[in-house]
# Entry
Amino acid sequence: MKKIALIITIVISIITVQMSSAQTTQKEQKQNPYTLVYDGAITENVKGKVNIHPVNYKIKEITIVANVYTPANFDTSKKYPTIVIAHPNGGVKEQVAGLYAQRLAEQGYITITADAAYQGGSGGEPRNVDKPANRIEDVHAMADFISQYKGVDTSRLGLLGICGGGGYSLKAAQSDKRFKAIATVSMFNSGVVRRNGFMNSQFSTIQQRLKEASDARTQEAAGGTIMYVGDTQLTDKQIAALPFDLYREGFEYYGKTHAHPNSTFKYTKSSLMDLMTFDASTNMDLINQPLLMIAGSKADSFYMTDDAFNKATNAKNKELFLINGATHIETYWKPDYVSQAVNKLVNFYQTNL
# Structure
């Protein structure tokens, strides 16, 4: 009986912590009119300071929602260097992408970050399709939109991709020469991980997972139930038992400390047909723009940054910058690490835009 009572107590404690975290997040979002969940986020537009401008535009018939950040004392009669920012897998513009967008705007840049098509607050059905072609088009479309925005100097257009957005940004930059300088933070090569598993941990199930993805597409085409991957809720104990820092800290970041209702780990199983044949690091020799790749020195995802960086044989002034002591997720929120990344980005863009 004592053992059963102890188990019940532990379960109640876990539920209480999860409910408390959710309530805290909801409270923060209610306090922020833009539902931004990062520290120091804008709560109102004040004349003479950095401002945020919710906007929307179309990719074909799909409505895309985005936030444009303008620097202090913004003057539409002047021209400003501008940065397009692509968010992580499962993330939304109100999280780390918004943090970097605001911090760069504080340094004099116009910035834009948008929710990917089929994801977040953007349109598209079924929900949470996660195909590389869509994510790459998201990057091109942000450039299309922001190039028409008053005050943007299209000759000084930069690109920043974070996590999965970093891999898709590398691929977009291979052909899109409107981007004059390319940077990534904690780059994640979505295709390689979806195919081989994180740190090559799922080689043995590649064919099985491709078969499941194919079957899921057949079911979708017949009007059946949409099948999803990554739609699992874990307890604190299960999260703590995960073998990789990226996933342990990712569950904390996305599920608790910086949770947003539009953010989710899940994606359509049929998307794996496209993801598992994708590799962000192919054709890296096509990037001839200046390239900066930032990663944490303790990030277990670093092998993906290292691989892509070494393949960028034609990139100008390329540099790999490691943030000492940082893990992958810590580059999303930890003040010292974010400041180091932003300072490096500003120096890079000032030099190359």
